[in-house]
Amino acid sequence: MASTSQCTYCGSTISSSEKCCPNCGAPNEGYVADTERHIFLPKTIEELKEYCAERGMPLLKMRFFIGENYRKPKAFGIYRDGENYIVYKNKANGQRAIRYQGPDEAFAVNELFLKLLDECHSRGIYPDGKTPEKSSSGQQRNRQKTQGILPPIICIIVMIVLTAIMALYSMHQHRNDGYYGDGDGTVYYRYGSTWYYSSVSDSSWYETNEFPAENYEDYSLGEYWNSDWGISDFKSSEIWEDINESSSSSSSDYDSWDSGDTDWDSDW
Known about the structure:
Blueprint: E1 4-6, E2 13-15, H1 45-54, H2 59-62, E3 64-66, E4 75-81, E5 84-90, E6 96-102, H3 105-121, H4 138-146, H5 150-173, E7 178-181, E8 186-191, E9 194-199, E10 202-208, E11 220-222, H6 238-247
Parallel strand pairs: 3-4
Antiparallel strand pairs: 1-2, 4-5, 5-6, 7-8, 7-11, 8-9, 9-10
């Protein structure tokens, strides 16, 4: 089951199964090519496994062992032992620190889930699509509970304002996206501030520095491709696919993951 979100560029509702926004044609940053991301807050060990699989997380490389009582140093994990769920960290010296041991599976999973996100955020990876907090430690969460309801409301208001500003900026940046013709048979496509071109003699698309006329707005052919032009649709080209891939989250985000960046000497 596909999830929905708002287009970063125009604010329209868009499904995770769509590569491009049906309203403005911009790349869908939440597009999921292989599996549909339908779990956003895992509550069981199996859901946590599925959450990680949907996002292409290399758990062995990340040193997270879900559903496994892993005994070697440098590891985070969760497993079930009888009626209890155990969340642990194996430090660099091999010593085990127990984060939680008890019958509440949802609580146990959430403890490891927050640590997983914290490790991702510290490396500039956002599988949850949210800007990370400065700290996800238990001490900070306890402080947040005692601060009352005002700070969360302020945070929500700030997030809404920032989102609106980003949306307006993106809409302004992409307001002239579309096809343009120079009158000599060459068709151009403008995406943001970048130009691409294709001619009738070659169906491929190429990046170029600029449009051959200063007042390019006068040469607009419209937002949508027309087969009568004798060229291929830009939004079916390899370049367009590359644009989508570069703006979408993928397992390549984890290629540079270095488990040595984790503080393995602390208890959590």
